[in-house]
TrEMBL record:
HAMAP family: PanB
InterPro entries xrefs: Pantoate_hydroxy_MeTrfase, Pyrv/PenolPyrv_kinase-like_dom, Pyrv_kinase-like_dom_sf
Originating species: Dissulfurirhabdus thermomarina
Chief subcellular location: cytoplasm
GO-annotated molecular function: 3-methyl-2-oxobutanoate hydroxymethyltransferase activity; magnesium ion binding; methyltransferase activity
Physiological role: Catalyzes the reversible reaction in which hydroxymethyl group from 5,10-methylenetetrahydrofolate is transferred onto alpha-ketoisovalerate to form ketopantoate.
Protein's name in the database: 3-methyl-2-oxobutanoate hydroxymethyltransferase
UniProt cross-references to SUPFAM superfamilies, sorted A to Z: Phosphoenolpyruvate/pyruvate domain
Enzyme class: transferase
Length: 298
């Protein structure tokens, strides 16, 4: 059985906005329309990203690095992911919302994987989940899709195991690892994955995988030959400056703008320029004299 994200309504319990059908990524690949994906971690940014017309909003476990201040994604918990996925879901009307399953939420057993993936769908209202890796993860993906959970794969640089496998570096540079990546990609497709993220791999390898798969590939540091592209939104708008991967293109520099705005605010308050009359509830209340007299009388 194949579980696709559009095969189910993406509706959480509660206060979700009315929505149209999520984009059909398979149809987009088949028609040669490129897929756009960005991360978001809260309601406000999710709304902006959705309104700008992105097809897929990923609640990435990069949360740990760009929002929570860890230097890796591995400490991120299911509860943290769900907390943010719920907020994101409330901000999205149109895009497919994908919950990134955190480290050790799907590796311990396939039962635990289904239970945790189910929480993204049932509690947060996500339309799909994403898991990292090939090899042993493939059977888990098969089990999850058989249970009706739409699963996105993720190969190449897989940050959850990066520390154990050579760091934040390009993958698939030699023939053996390229061969393994091609095989993992085919296995994930056969296991029912509906799309595949390719992170930090040579453009030629990503193109080859994209040509050989029926399901769409979504690249990050994987060149122009993929069916779509994903980036971390904080990188795109210049709100993250701890490091900048070479594949990131910055479309805005918000950090200096925020710093300057906050600096002006601080100076205004210190100098007594803000708040002023224009930002106060002005006018003399009719009872003011009475109140003063009353207080003075004790
Ligand atoms: N802000 C942010 N952006 C991301 O893209 C991102 C995260 N955080 N956190 C989770 C992972 C980690 N990622 C990273 C982080 C660093 C590089 C990096 O600096 N790579 C080098 C490659 C060097 C080499 O292979 O020799 C580069 O130059 O891009 C790559 C991916 C991608 N993901
Ligand atoms: C960079 C994307 C693919 C991701 O997994 C994340 O943001 O966690
Ligand atoms: Mg991730």
């Amino acid at each position: 059985m194949e579980a696709t994200p559009h095969s189910r309504p993406q509706d959480p319990a509660g206060e979700a906005p009315a929505r149209v059908t999520v984009p059909d990524l398979q149809q987009m690949k088949d028609e040669g329309r490129r897929i756009t994906m960005l991360t978001a971690y809260d309601w406000g940014m999710a709304r902006l990203v959705d309104e700008a017309g992105v097809d897929v909003v990923l609640v990435g476990d990069s949360l740990g690095m760009v929002v929570l201040g860890y230097d890796a994604t591995t400490p991120v918990t299911m509860d943290e992911m769900l907390h943010h996925a719920k907020a994101v879901r409330r901000g999205v009307r149109r895009a497919l919302v994908v919950g990134d399953m955190p480290f050790l939420s799907y590796q311990v057993s396939r039962e635990e994987a289904v239970r945790n993936a189910g929480r993204f769908l049932k509690e947060a209202g996500c339309g799909a989940v994403k898991v990292e890796g090939g090899g042993a993860v493939v059977e888990t993906v098969r089990f999850m899709t058989a249970a009706g959970i739409p699963v996105m794969g993720h190969l190449g640089l897989t940050p959850q195991t990066a520390a154990a496998t050579g760091g934040f570096r390009v993958r698939g540079r030699d023939l053996a690892s390229a061969r393994r990546l091609v095989a993992d990609a085919a296995d994930l497709e056969a296991a029912g994955a509906f799309a595949l993220v390719l992170e930090c791999v040579p453009a030629a390898l990503a193109r080859l995988v994209t040509e050989r798969l029926r399901i769409p590939t979504i690249g990050i540091g994987a060149g122009p030959g993929c069916d779509g592209q994903v980036l971390v939104v904080n990188d795109v708008v210049g709100l993250f400056d701890r490091f900048r991967p070479s594949f990131v293109k910055r479309y805005a520099e918000l950090a200096p703008t925020v710093r300057a705005a906050v600096g002006e605010y601080v100076a205004d308050v210190r100098e007594g320029r803000f708040p002023d009359e224009a930002h106060s509830f002005t006018g003399e209340p009719p009872w003011l004299a009475d109140l003063r007299a009353e207080l003075e009388a004790g």
